[in-house]
Amino acid sequence: MGIKRVGHRYSDAETGVTLDCWFPRSNQKLRRSCLADKVELVRGDFVEVEIEALSEAPRSAEDVYLRLHLLSECTVRPNELNLDGMFALLSNVAWTTAGPVLPARVDELRSRIAAEYHHLIVLGIDKFPRMVDYVVPCGVRIADGDRVRLGAHLSPGTTVMHEGFVNFNAGSLGECMIEGRVTPGVVVGGKSDVGAGSSIMGILSGGGKQVNAIGQRCLLGANAGIGISLGDDSIVEAGLYVTAGTKVTLPDGSVVAARTLSGKPGLLFRRNSQTGAVEVLPTDSGRWGTLNASLHNNA
Fold it and tell me: How far apart (Å, rounded) are the C-alpha atoms in residues 95 and 104?
């Protein structure tokens, strides 16, 4: 899959280090402006980036930014493109209300824009910017833009509530509710609910390579977590964290490691309130009623 796009790049005026790159969906030369550019701390220009094969590792910061845009535009799904070595290609950037600058130049920026009567706010210092400043998806609600990184993949009908968090190379494959943390490599199927305070182990957790996912019509309860995949129509009760090594008791009384159940559909993971043992029972999504259709009408 070959892709060629035109982007607008900001780079540090002194060192030439790439700070960011925006690739408009129209693939036209659309210029941006910011106070950091006006006072000549950063320089804006146009760049054409071509990716011959998404299976090949990125070669530059501009290449990485194009791949992150493709994910957030839902042109490609998480785990369908190579992001190896991306961290080494990106610089730490101070994302400010006057534009992106190198962290060491924030004070200089504050001084240079003093005459503009602009109260400078540093939104964060990170290698990744907020998705909504680069890609605004259709049919999606995001309660707090700071909680979704560029490179997140959000399908129409998805709602990310205030405490929800979606990282790059992760996200939803259909209409769903996200109130917990969706980490790199993780995808959530349609009609599923990632409960408040819950978390899913991604491929960057501890350097792991196991790609976990949540199937369709699933419920990951509030403050719960998984280190395995959930098959369709599965539930993890609130407050229960199921890792791959968690010992679970099956209906026939046998005990197995949770990893042997990874991805199998129609399972309810719960903790016995009397014995403390983690149990697995057959279930269906009707036990929790699925998503509220009115709530997820994001048109």
Answer: 12
Map residue 148 onto helix, strand or coil.
Answer: strand
132-191 pLDDT per residue, tens: 999 999 999 999 999 999 999 999 999 999 999 999 999 999 999 999 999 999 999 999
**Residue showing tokens 């950063």:** 42
Spell out the alpha helix ranges (H) of 39-189: 61-72, 86-89, 106-112
Residue 239: exposed, middle, or buried by beta-carbon count in 10 A (0-12, 13-18, 19+)?
middle
Q: What is the CA radius of gyration of the chain?
A: 22
Query: Rounded distance, CA 282 to CA 236, Å?
Result: 12
For 49-75, what is each residue's pLDDT tens digit?
A: 999 999 999 999 999 999 999 999 999
Q: What angle do CA 136, 141, 143 make, to 5 degrees?
A: 105
| Nearest alpha-carbon partner for 239 in 257, 212, 262, 221 | 221
What distance in Å separates the CA atoms of residue 61 and residue 90, rounded to the nearest whole number? 5
Angle of CA points 84, 210, 89, to nearest 5°:
15
- Is residue 163 annotated as a catalytic residue, yes or no? no
Among 34, 9, 45, 18, which residue's Cα sits nearest to residue 109? 34
Distance CA 50, CA 6 (A): 9
- Over the range 27-58, which residues count as b (16 or more CB within 10 Å of their CB) and which as e? eeeeeeebbbbebebbebeebebebeebeeeb
Q: How far is CA 121 from the centre of its chain?
A: 24
Catalytic residue (choose from 62, 175, 179, 237): 179
For residues 227 and 121, give the distance between their C-alpha atoms in angstroms, rounded to a whole number.
37
Which among 162, 152, 140 has a CA at the least distance from the CA of 185? 152
